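Agenda item 2: guanosine-5'-diphosphate complex prediction
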Amino acid sequence: MDIADLRDRILKQDRRALARAITLVESARPDHREQATALLDTLSKAGKQALRIGLSGTPGVGKSTFIESFGMMLTAQGLRVAVLAVDPSSARSGGSILGDKTRMERLSRDPNAFIRPSPSQTHLGGVARRSREAVALCEAAGFDVVLIETVGVGQSETVVAEMADLFLLLLAPAGGDELQGVKRGIMEMADVILVNKADGDLKSAAMRTCADYAGALRLLRKRPQDPQGFPKAMTVSALEESGLVTAWDEITSLIKWRRAEGHWAARRAAQAQFWFHEEVRQGLLARLQQSDAQKHLADLDTKVAAGEVTPGQAAKEVLDHLS
Ligand code: GDP
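Presented output:
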């Protein structure tokens, strides 16, 4: 593959070239890996800095409907929008919850939008890396907003938060006790909670749910990266396309404040370091699995279980073996 050519076409905002480049970063083949690294390297200072928005919610809350309505609202303002899915299930099962091609049909036809479903199969640890690198490629291709979507199942939010500038949590109107159903850790990650389906018969339930979450957010520890009034809860209707402009205004005002106060840059710097350490960790693990230290590991496992060697001593032996 001609990496220089691919690079030029990405910089010219060619969506097919972008799609090809993402396929390249998804590949586990060592030669592809090398090309992907070279490509990302030549693009690292190019393009612009997009607004990276993480979005999570359990299946059925209206993520696709929201992304489509929200995305169309943004492209109508002349913004270019990329949508990436981080689907933790696809790494294990090969099946994908977010990969459905029929999702977001209108948005996918919009020339100012780019939608990438999650890969159907990735090697271990590949989901996070692939997503992070795909975000970088979208930025190089001049997208203004990159939406990174994930299903609310726990660990994937943490991964998405590590590559986003801010995090949206989409919820549905709930009956009485469901507030506890959202894990505290996920609540703590959210910058804006959007209670969707605030329309028709569900409207009053949505407003009640929103007030409950607003109350819950006020009880959380104050974070230095939050201006007055954040994190906040609001209602939207993805179906009726209401509340979306207000949500966008809140998002942009939050980011403007964070940029001015230095929090935005600090977060990106910390994220770069996080991914550097993560790459080292993954690389070491891969090396461990390839080397004959693996056999050593199995032997020591038995000894550790039998109490013949301490865990610390066993770990030291394996690591000594690696170097
Ligand atoms: P996802 O699984 O989170 O991607 O959810 P979908 O976007 O597929 O939506 C699940 C269901 O909720 C669909 O039947 C949608 O039509 C419906 N839905 C999504 N947004 C809204 C909304 O704002 N109001 C109402 N009443 N229904 C909605």
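Discussion summary: The chain has a mean pLDDT of 87.
Owner for follow-up: CH.
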